[in-house]
Design brief:
The chain is 24% helix and 31% strand. The chain is α+β, with helices and mostly antiparallel strands. Strand 1 and strand 2 form a beta hairpin. The radius of gyration is 15 Å and the shape is globular. It has one domain: 60s Ribosomal Protein L30, Chain: A (2-Layer Sandwich).
Length: 141
């Protein structure tokens, strides 16, 4: 069977192999031929003063890390629609409980744009930190 391919402009494409299930939470893989890669290191749930926000509250922390990611992208000259991949680290990840919370925070930054992602459960991050997000963007110049 052939792959389904969606064109996202800027020479980026999403590929959905025909034999791979397409659950609602899946974000197709992307490749790009942009002229510049932007690597954003893990964004933590900290305010602009470096203080942890929302101790024990994944929803608050998720909103903060995606807001921080948006600021980091802007500082690097990139925009959310140029993000090709994100990696999300979550302490004691439980899909049914955590995925909807994370997805709501993700949509606040990306809207309908769905970069390829990996969501990885970890034993711990810094004390009190429940989530961290890193990204790779492909910019047009």
């Amino acid at each position: 069977m052939a792959s389904r391919v969606a064109d996202f402009g800027h020479d980026a494409r999403a590929h959905q192999p025909a034999r791979l299930a397409y659950p609602q939470h899946l974000h197709p893989g992307r490749g790009g031929t942009g002229s510049r890669l932007v690597f954003v290191a893990g964004q933590e749930p900290e305010d602009t003063e470096g203080r942890l926000v929302g101790p024990g509250d994944l929803a608050v922390q998720a909103r903060q890390v995606f807001a921080n990611l948006g600021r980091a992208l802007t500082a690097a000259g990139a925009v959310p629609d140029e993000v090709a991949r994100i990696t999300i680290y979550v302490v004691d990840y439980n899909r049914d409980e955590h995925l909807p919370v994370i997805e709501e925070a993700r949509v606040s930054l990306f809207g309908d744009h769905k970069p390829a992602d990996s969501l990885i459960g970890v034993d711990r991050l810094s004390p009190g930190y429940l989530i961290e997000v890193e990204a790779i963007a492909v910019t047009g110049g």
